[in-house]
């Protein structure tokens, strides 16, 4: 691209819109975080369901939920790596960060209250919480998969409240698939395609 | 009558740079180079011109022991870009 080359007003407008869309196209996430959390929550829910159905006496299997805490470690590593790779910062980066941090704090508080008091429908409350950042980020980014995922979590929250016992865990697995794993797959595919185009 | 287009912005590479910088909060030199497909030398010259006009802020820092140049549009740059787009629109309206 030359600096001083003569160009028409029409070409100016075309250049502006081309550059804006080029910069926008670069707002591509690797999708790894979404895939990881979708997989962890689905795995924990299915293992817990399996335990309740077939081996209810195996209390130790409940330790599988600790994976959700351990997941924070790779999350931090991935976030640091992605931060290093990024060559620009978007206008809404801090806002998105704030939404996910608030979600993390809400989940920690929810776990605290769950351990301290006996919650009547903990899975429904988890699903309500899952839906908030998913819908908010999806809505802000106009990313349909996350909007659907967020709404699905809220629908599953209602359904889980009228579903008996351990079967509610299926809604938790379904919610994490629709809110994170599937959007994560879409983001990953977009990221790999963009990476291939840039080579 | 249409206004004269801002000569600082009415240049392919400088307009491309400002258009990218208006879409992001801040961008590294390498990002701008990749998106505009300009040479490093030419890009540096144009970035300096925009900086001298007060349209962008340029800061230098180190990332993993490598020097890094970060560019960010200033409020003055945003105003100039908005005015440039308005002028372009009025110019196109007159031509119709």
Describe the model.
The complex is a heterodimer of chains A (199) and B (96). By secondary structure, chain A is an all-alpha fold. Chain A contains eight helices and one strand, in the order ααααβαααα. Chain A has helices at residues 9-25, 32-54, 67-70, 72-85, 93-116, 122-141, 144-161, 168-198; one strand spanning 88-89. With 96 residues, chain B is of the alpha+beta class. The mean pLDDT of chain B is 89. Chain A binds chain B through residues 1-5, 7, 9-10, 12-13, 15-16, 19-20, 22-24, 26, 84, 87-91, 93, 198, and chain B through 5, 10-16, 19-20, 22-28, 30-31, 34-38, 42, 45-46, 63-64, 85, 88, 91-92, 95.
Quick take:
Chain A is an all-alpha fold and 199 residues long. Helix content of chain A is 76%, strand content 1%. By secondary structure, chain B is an alpha+beta fold.
Spans where pLDDT lies below 50 across 5 or more residues of chain B? none
Number of helices of chain B: 4
Specify the number of helices of chain A.
8
Average pLDDT confidence of chain A is 89
The biggest chain-chain interface is: A-B, 26 and 34 residues
> What Rg of chain A is obtained from the alpha carbons, in whole angstroms?
21 Å
Radius of gyration of chain B: 15 Å
Class by SSE composition of chain A:
mainly alpha
Helicity of chain B, in percent?
55-70%
* Span of the ends, CA to CA of chain B: 13 Å
Distance between the termini of chain A: 19 Å
How is the main sheet of chain A built?
none
Q: Helices and strands of chain A, in N-to-C order?
A: HHHHEHHHH
Strand content of chain A: under 5%
Q: Give helix % range of chain A.
A: over 70%
What is the molecular shape of chain B?
A: elongated
Quantity of strands of chain A, as a count:
1
């Amino acid at each position: 691209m030359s600096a001083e080359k003569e160009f028409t007003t029409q070409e100016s407008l075309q250049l502006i819109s081309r550059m804006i869309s080029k910069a926008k196209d670069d707002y591509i996430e690797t999708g790894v975080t979404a895939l990881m959390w979708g997989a962890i929550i689905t795995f924990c829910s299915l293992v817990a369901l399996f335990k309740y159905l077939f081996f209810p006496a195996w209390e130790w299997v409940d330790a599988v939920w600790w994976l959700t805490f351990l997941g924070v470690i790779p999350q931090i590593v991935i976030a640091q790596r992605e931060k290093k790779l990024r060559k620009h910062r978007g206008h809404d980066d801090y806002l998105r960060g704030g939404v996910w941090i608030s979600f993390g704090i809400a989940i920690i508080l929810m776990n605290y209250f769950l351990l301290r008091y006996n919650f009547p429908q903990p899975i429904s409350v988890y699903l309500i919480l899952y839906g908030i950042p998913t819908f908010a980020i999806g809505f802000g980014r106009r990313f349909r998969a996350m909007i659907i995922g967020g709404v699905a979590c809220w629908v599953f929250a209602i359904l889980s409240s009228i579903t008996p016992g351990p079967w509610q865990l299926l809604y938790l697995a379904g919610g994490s698939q629709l809110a994170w794993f599937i959007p994560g797959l879409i983001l990953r595919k977009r990221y790999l395609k963009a990476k291939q185009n840039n080579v | 009558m249409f206004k004269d287009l801002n000569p600082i912005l009415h240049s392919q590479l400088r307009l491309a740079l400002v258009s990218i910088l208006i879409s992001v909060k801040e961008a590294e030199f390498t990002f701008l180079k990749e998106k505009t497909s300009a040479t490093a030398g030419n890009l540096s010259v144009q970035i300096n011109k925009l900086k001298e006009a007060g349209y962008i802020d340029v800061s230098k820092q180190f990332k993993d022991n490598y020097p890094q140049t970060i560019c960010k549009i200033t409020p003055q740059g945003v105003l100039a870009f908005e005015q440039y787009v308005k002028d372009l629109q009025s110019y196109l309206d007159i031509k119709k």
